[in-house]
Structure formats: C-alpha cells, structure tokens
Design a protein that fits this description.
Pfam families: DUF5819
Helix content: 40-55%
Number of helices: 7
Largest sheet: 5 strands, antiparallel
Number of domains: 2
Strand content: 5-15%
Shape: globular
Length: about 220
C-alpha cells in the first residue's frame, strides 16, 4: 500500500510539473494545441507569470473591492479584498493564504489576459496591420467569453465567502465587485511629490448572494 501511494504521488507531481513547464514556456505547438486544457488546470490556484520583466512588464496595481447589500436594505462600505489577503500572506508564507491570494490573480488573468496567439493578433489589429473583423472569431469567441464568465464567477464566490465571514449573523441579499487599477509611477516622476497616478475603476453588476462556506 505504501509503495502504491509513493508511485501515485510521483506520477501526480510529475504531471503537475509537466503542466507547469508547458504553462510557463514560450509559445510552441504543444502549448497551442493544449493551451486551454493546461490553463484550465493551472488557473487560478497555480497561476504564475513573468510580467515583472521585459518586454511587457506589469504596469498597474490591481485591487478588488466588494460591498454587500443586507436584507434590511443597508449597504456596507467597500471592503478591500486584495490588501487583506496580501498582508496575511506576507505575515506567513506557509499558510493557505499563499494559495488563496492566487485566486484573485488567476481570476483577473481569466478576465483580461489572453493566450499567446490571441495576444499577437490583438497587437497586429491595434497596429492596423490586420482587419479586426477578419479575426473576430478568434479575438471574441465563445471560449474567451466563457473564460471571462468563469473569472467573474470565481471572484464573486471568493468575495461572498469573505463577506459572509465578516457578517456571520447578517442576512446578505447581494454583493457587488469593482476592480481598481492604478498605473505605476513612471521613473521620470519618482521624485515628483505632486504626481498623481491614474486610476481606472471597473464596476461589475450586483450578484445575488449564494451561501458559501466562509474560508477566512
């Protein structure tokens, strides 16, 4: 029995590391063919990227906020989901928070990040080198729409779990999410005390509350 468990664990970890290697690898035929399967396994819990580095480093600070409407009509203040999770993760890396914090990143990736082929096509369309209408079936297909819906569903369940842990005795009717994107300070403005970072707010629709087990 012990040998079976060891063999099973080795196979499981081998598959996981193989998927991780393909997920992080540059675009290639294997990634093109099995990309959606691999992404489905890796995101949101195992998602990771190299966007700290050129040529397309991350340039925004993304935060999710949620508010709840109670059955009595009262609406709570906006609650910052991201800062809370990051602080918990920084305090102790060897806790479930290290994985929970990845759910937000994975969901954000599902909402905004595209696969390599779609990204390259989008760049060509933006550069006016390709006609968008000729590639709408790739840039805005049902699979991409389904991926976005999955990202929204993950975020809402995540947020509702957190809200239910903050208001355990309240009857929650529905919740609403926003994502706040703050652009990074350019190097040329690092020493400018009056510089104001540009902030964009994306507001999601209210979502009926579904009873979920609080995990926070």
């Amino acid at each position: 029995m012990k040998k079976i468990i060891i063999i099973f664990s080795i196979i499981l970890f081998s598959i996981h590391f193989l998927f991780t290697a393909i997920y992080l690898a540059p675009f290639n035929p294997v990634k093109a063919k099995f990309g959606f399967i691999i992404n489905g396994y890796m995101e949101p819990l195992f998602s990771q990227n190299w966007r700290l580095f050129a040529p397309n480093p991350a340039s925004t600070n993304n935060q999710f906020l949620v508010r709840a409407e109670l059955a009595n009509g009262e609406t709570t203040e906006w609650i910052n989901l991201t800062s809370f999770m990051i602080e918990k993760n920084y305090k102790n890396r060897f806790t479930p928070y290290n994985r929970l914090v990845r759910i937000q990143r994975g969901a954000f990736t599902a909402l905004h990040q595209k696969d390599d082929i779609t990204m390259k096509l989008s760049e060509k369309v933006e550069e006016k080198k390709l006609n968008k209408e000729d590639f709408d079936y790739i840039l805005d297909n049902e699979m991409i729409k389904e991926q976005r819906e999955d990202g929204i569903d993950i975020l809402n369940r995540y947020a509702q779990s957190y809200v239910s842990s903050l208001y355990p005795g309240e009857d929650i009717a529905r919740t609403q999410l926003i994502v706040r994107q703050t652009e990074a300070t350019p190097y040329s403005e690092q020493s400018n005390p009056t510089f104001k970072n540009k902030t964009n707010i994306h507001e999601f629709e209210w979502r009926e509350f579904e009873k979920v087990s609080p995990v926070f």
